[in-house]
Amino acid sequence: MRSFMAHRAMLTDYAAKVVGDRVQAEDIVQEAWLSLTARPAGADVRNPLGYLHRMVRNLAIDALRRKARESRFSGGDMDVAERMVADGQASPEAALSARRDLACVLDVLQGLPERQRIAIEMYRFGGHKLREIADHLGVSVALVHLLVSEGLAICADRCGLSRPNSG
Fold this sequence. Notes:
By secondary structure, the chain is an all-alpha fold. Helices cover 77% and strands 0% of the residues.
């Protein structure tokens, strides 16, 4: 147990390198601690640090596999790209992909008619409700819904993203 406490920071750094997320790494190290304390009292380990290192490595790899499995089922979309760029918790590769997706969307937005661009920006980036956008633009809520949904579909098609929900 002393070996764990003495090397906790090193184990957390190691797990963070594997999973790319410091908070998740701390959870993994905590899980290793719980697993270690659940071992029978007479179960001695010849190389405690090596054992802990391997345990953390295996838990981190399991976490990566679980995350990959979950992402295969959920797919990606513009919401995910926005969140990954904004919260900084993504792996470098995923963040780069999200930034590219977002840059593509922003580029497509610049080519849309002004009223449609404003409606999308207010809805997706500003978090405004359709009624607020309609009031701002001086148009009906139905027209705002049409502008946003068609504009998001254009962005998704041109950037190769899944189509998001527009309202």
